[in-house]
Design brief:
By secondary structure, this protein is α/β, with parallel strands linked by helices. Helix content is 42%, strand content 17%. Bound molecules: nicotinamide-adenine-dinucleotide.
């Protein structure tokens, strides 16, 4: 039997915990933590994310700020805004929504955010702190994945873990988190040979690729904990589309021990972890 991990319910619980933490913070400090999101351009998916982040921030009792800049904004103007937010004592967390327009150097922008306010955990200082085992602001998606993995499996010491994908946003920090918990970690990527053989060994499988149903159900090791980060839009034939993961969900059912659905698995946890990071950043300042 496969346990379907209810990311929505788990995220609701985490958001309630954060809201309780926010109340305590307000009682002690006399102000609410603040998260400011910067959106450049009109990308519809990014606009949806920014809206739902703002709503979740307010629901948790925090102050939500938003800056919308036109796609034509210069890099210098964006850097000046980030510098102003770094200096603003009411702002505890800064999130610059990616992707940025091509004329802007994303790495430079991310490196300009004060690491203490870097609630996305993308600043090289936070990436380095995570990699070296120091306390850090950790990227939200892998943080949420780790919570679900540990709640399913308990202690993961020595377990065979496979992370498919090596992005700075998901794959690499996911691997670092699993390694820090003493799992035996393999990272697969676009140049990996015989992905199926790696999947077959994995007791923990995190798929973060962006290719619909890349991982076949029959590849999965029986009993494995499968975390599907992929968010792929596929046409349904009737002029509509639906969201699906990197794992062949139907094929994995009955074989995996645990699996996250898409949607309703990793996605809701990501936003909840963003709120948790904002509270953590506020407390640390
Ligand atoms: P990315 O494009 O930066 O990285 C994809 C990775 O997959 C790369 O490292 C690449 O080497 C690897 N890859 C590509 N083809 C492969 C193949 N055939 N076999 C093995 N590896 C292969 O993407 P990302 O930002 O890491 O996101 C990955 C997926 O996760 C996307 O679908 C994205 O939408 C989704 N995502 C979801 C959330 C969430 O909250 N649910 C958050 C972030 C990303």
């Amino acid at each position: 039997m496969t346990v379907i991990i209810d990311g929505k319910a788990r995220a609701a619980q985490l958001r309630a915990d954060v809201a309780a933490g926010v109340s305590e913070f307000v009682a002690v400090r006399g102000r609410a933590p603040g998260l400011t999101v910067v959106l450049v351009g009109e990308d519809p998916a990014s606009a949806v994310y920014v809206r739902s982040k703002g709503k979740a921030t307010t629901e948790a009792g925090m102050v939500s700020g938003e800056h919308r800049l036109p796609a034509t904004v210069s890099e210098a103007e964006l850097l000046a805004l980030v510098a102003a937010l770094n200096a603003d004592p009411a702002v505890d967390g800064i999130l610059v929504q990616l992707p940025l327009p091509r004329h802007i150097d994303t790495d430079r922008v991310l490196a300009t955010i004060d690491p203490a306010k870097d609630v996305d955990g993308f600043h090289p200082i936070n990436a380095g702190r995570l990699a070296t085992g120091l306390d850090a602001l950790v990227p939200c998606t892998p943080s949420g994945c780790l919570m679900m993995i540990e709640e399913a499996l308990g202690d993961i010491t020595g377990k065979e873990a496979l992370v498919i994908g090596r992005s700075n946003i998901v794959g690499k920090p996911m691997a670092a988190l699993l390694l820090a918990r003493s799992a035996t970690v393999t990272i697969a990527h676009s140049r990996t040979r015989d992905l199926a053989a790696h999947v077959a060994r994995a007791e923990i499988l995190v798929a973060a690729v962006g290719v619909a149903h890349l991982v076949k159900g029959e590849w999965i090791r029986p009993g494995a904990c499968v975390i599907d980060v992929g968010m792929n839009r596929v046409a349904t034939g009737d002029g509509k589309s639906r969201l699906t993961g990197d794992v062949d969900y139907d094929g994995a059912l009955g074989r995996a021990g645990w699996i996250t659905p898409v949607p309703g698995g990793v996605g809701p946890m990501t936003i909840a972890c963003l709120l948790a990071n904002t509270l953590k950043a506020a407390k640390a300042r």
